[in-house]
# Entry
Amino acid sequence: MNAYRIVGTPQPQIDARDKVTGRARYTDDIRLPNCLHAAILRSPHASARIRAIDTARAAALPGVKAVLTGTDFERTFGVLPISKDEPALARERVRYVGEPVAAVAAETAELAAAAVALIAVDYAPTPPVLDARQALKPTDDPLHPELQRENNLHKQVEQRFGDPEAGFEQASIVIEKRFTFPSVTHAFTEPHAVQVEIDGRGNLTVYSATQVPHYVHLALAEVLGIDEHRVRVIKPHLGGGFGGKSDPFPHEMIAAKLALVTGRNVRLRFSREDVFFSHHGRHRTQLTMKLGFHPARGITALTGDFLIDGGAYGSFGVVTTYYNGVLLQGPYPVPNFAFRCRRMYTNKPMCGAMRGHGGVNPRFASEVLMDMALVQSGLDPCQARIDLIHRENTLTINEFRITSVGLQRGLEEAMRRSGWREKYGKLPYGKGIGVACGFFISGSALPIHWNQRPASTVRLTVEFDGAVTVYSGASDIGQGSDTVLAMMAAEVLGVDLGQVKVVAADTRLTPVDLGSYSSRVTFMAGNAARNAAIRMRRLLVAAACRLLALPEPGYPAPAPPEDGFRQGGRAPDFDADFLGANPDYSDGFEFADGRIRHLDSGKQTGFIAAVHAAIEGPGILQTVGNYRAPKLGGSFKGAGAGLSPAYSFTAFIVEVSVDPDTGFVKVERATCAHDCGFALNPLAVRGQIEGCFHMGMGQALMEEVLHYDGAVQNAGFLEYKIPSPFEQPEIDLVPSISDESEGPFGAKEAGEGPLAPVIPAIANAIFDAVGVRLFELPLRPDRVLAAMHKAAGR
Amino acid sequence: MDTRIVSAARQGVATRLLSLEVNGQRQQRAVAPDITLLDFLREELGLTGSKRGCDLGECGCCAVLVDGRPMLACLLPAADLEHSAITTIEGIAEGTALHPLQQAMIDEGAVQCGYCTPAMVINGVHLFSGESRPDADAIRTCISATSCRCTGYNRIVQAFQSTAERLAEDPR
# Structure
C-alpha cells in the first residue's frame, strides 16, 4: 500500500561518515580563538552553610581572569517554571556533594584547576537528609525553606479515578507488594561540555552538549539578566543524552557568565566524576502497589503509593511525580485507579528525566504484579496480556486518548516466534521465559512553558541548485533525528536523501523546537518537517503547472477530524490554513528522478526547472510547517500530565538462565514487539530498541548509583557497571505495525517506550526459571540466590 | 597546588622536545612531561577524532594505534612516545576510501551518537589486521574495550561480523 521511496527503508544516519572518520565535531572538539578555560570548585559536603569564601589567592594567580561565586548570580533556574530552585553557584548553603560553589576562568585549563584549588571555603556542615523517608520527617531546616513546608517534600500528587475499593471487591485476586529501586544514571559516553563565544556587542554563542537548546537559551537569558536576543545556543554533535542533558545546567550559566565578565571566549568540560555528581538520573523509588484482578474482568483496580528521592533540586521532578502514576494507564485498561506520589528533597545529586521518564519503576511493579495475578489465575501470562491490551480508539479513565494500537498482533507474533507455548513453564530448572508489556507517550501534548505557539516548527528552503534545507530546532542526540527529518522531506519532495541538508539545533537559525525529550521529535518535529515539505511541494507544483500550461490542482481544506474523539471530544481548533497532522499530500503529480510529472497528462518538467520558475518572483523559496497537538485531556487538576497525541506499545519476551549455585542471571535471548506505528527508519528503530534493551537490562541486573553520607561512591565506569557486548542477547524484532493517523507517515515513538518492559520481563523469566519473585532492583546474584534459598526453606 | 609549581609549568620550564609520527606525518613539539597522548593529539595537534570520555582508561573512547597496537591515549604520557608512530581515527581511511569496517559501521547502523565510534574502529582495524579471521568471541572481546551506551552493541557486532566475512572473501 505504501509506495514510498525513502521512508520505511533502512537508512544509515546522514552524518555517519563523519562519525566513523572522526570528523564529527562535538562540543569539546570546537576550537575557539583566544579562549579561556574554566574550572568549577565543587562542594565536599552534602549539607553545609557557607560561612565565607576567600577567592583572593585564586584571583591573584597570574593568568586568572575571573572568579565567580554564588553572589554573582541573582536568579535561580530550573527546566520547569514551577521549580526554578537551582542556583548556578551555591549561595549560603550547599545541598549535595559535588554542587558547584565557585568557578574560575584562566588562560589554561591547568591554571584554572590550580586557581580553583586556591579558593578557600569556610563551611559549617549541617546534618544531611540522605533518604526520602528521612525527608518526610518534620524539620526546622528544610533544603528549600522557600517552599515553607515542615518537611522536605518537593511535590505531592494524588489522583483518583473510579472507585478503587469497589474495584478490589470485584477482584478474584488482590496482590499488594512493596518494591525498591536504586537510582540509576544515563552513563552517556560524552561528558557534559560547553563553550561560549562572545562578540564585540556582547552577544553570546553558547555551544553546548544539550538536548534542549531552546530551554538553555531561555535559562541563560534569565539567569544572566540579558535580553534573550543576545543568546544563541548551538548543539554540536552530541554523544548521548537519554534525558541526562535535558535540563539547563549550572555549568552553562557559569561559562556564559565568565564570558560576559571577561569579554573572552570560554571553554568548560566535565570529568567523568563531574558527570556522576551532576547526575539527573532515575529517582530512587520506594513504592507499594496493589493490583486487583479478575480473569473475566481483567484489572479491576490498581493503586500505588510512591516515594521518590529527588535529590537536592527540582529538575524535571514535578513531571516525574505525575508520570510515576499516570503512565500506569496503559497498556491495559485500569477502570479504578488511585495513586499518591511524593518527591522528596534530599542532600544528594538531583534526579531528573531518564529514558522512560517516571514510568519505568512503576512499570516493573505493575508487570510483576500482573504476572503474579495471571499465574495465580492459571492463565497464560502472554495470551492473557494480549487479551487485555487497550483496543484502538479508547479513552482511559484519566482521559488519555489511545488511538493506534498494534501490540495485539505484535505480541501474538512474538509469542509464536519465541516459541512461548513450547517453553513457558516447560523449561528445565534454571531456565525460564518471561513476558512484560509497556506503553509510552509520543511527545508531551503540552509545553513546559505555557504558550500558544506550535509544539514544533520547521522552516524549509529550496535553493537555485535544488538543495533542500530543513531548518529544525530538534536536537539530534545520536538517535538520528536529523536523518529522519531529512528522509521525510526527501520523500515528500521526491529528491535523493543526499540532496537534503539539515540545519538543526541552532537557536538563531532554526525555529523553536522544544527539544529532544518525552519521545517527541519524530512525531512533532517530523510532522512539522513533513508539512513544510508539503507546502514547498505545492509551490513547485504551481510552478510546474505554469511551465506545463496546466491548471493548478485544488487542495482540500484541512479536514476536520473524522469524529470528536480525535480531538478529545472537542471541536477542531485549527484554522483553514493549518495543515493538521500527517495530511495526505497527493496532488496528481509525481516527484521522482529529478522530474515533476503530471500523472493524468504525462506532461513533465525538471525539478530544477520548476525551482527556477518558482524562485523567479520571491527570489527565495521558503516554507514553514508546524505541529500542534490536538486539545486533549480532562479538566481535573494534573490532567495534562502524560497527555500525548499518540502512544507507543511494547512487549518483550525474554529467556534467561539462572545459575542455581550463584544466582547469576544471564539473558539468553529476547523477542520484541514494539508498536511504533509506521517505522520511518527501520534501522534507527532497531537501534533504539536494542539500546533500550541494553539500558533496561543494566537497570535490571547490575546498575545502581551508590552513596555514602551523600557522596557518590561509584562515580566512574569501573564501579558503575553497564552491560558489555557479552551480556547483550540477540533481539528478534517482530514487525508490530499500526497506522497512527496523526503521526508523520503513520509513525510513533521508538526511543523510550521499549525500555520499561525489559526489566519486568527479565524478572518474570527468573520466576519461570527458579520460582522466585524479587521486589528490589538490581536483581543481583546475591539477591536471587537468597530468594532461592528462602524458597527452598534454607 | 603550590602557585610556584603552576607558574613554573606555565613558563614551560619543564617542557621537553618530543618527536613522533602521527598519521604518517612527522611532528615535533615541546611538551610538558605530564601531558597525555590524548591531550597532545586533541589540544596540540587539533586531532579531535579521539574522544575524551573519562581520562581514566575506563570508557575506551580515546583508543589510538601506537606502533600498530591499540592503546588508550588518556593513559599514555606523550613524552614516553618518542619516535613512536601513532594512528588516530583521522588516519584510518585512505584518502576518501574508508576501511571496510568504517563502511560496515555505517551500513549496519552501528553508529548512533558516534562518540565511541572512533575507538571501536581503531580497535577493529587492529583486530582485522591479524592473519586469521576473528571469531565471534574475539569480536566481542574487541568491542568490549569501548563503552557504548546507545546501541546495545548488536549492530556493532553485526558490523564487525560482516567486515570479517568481507575480508575473508576479499583480503585487502
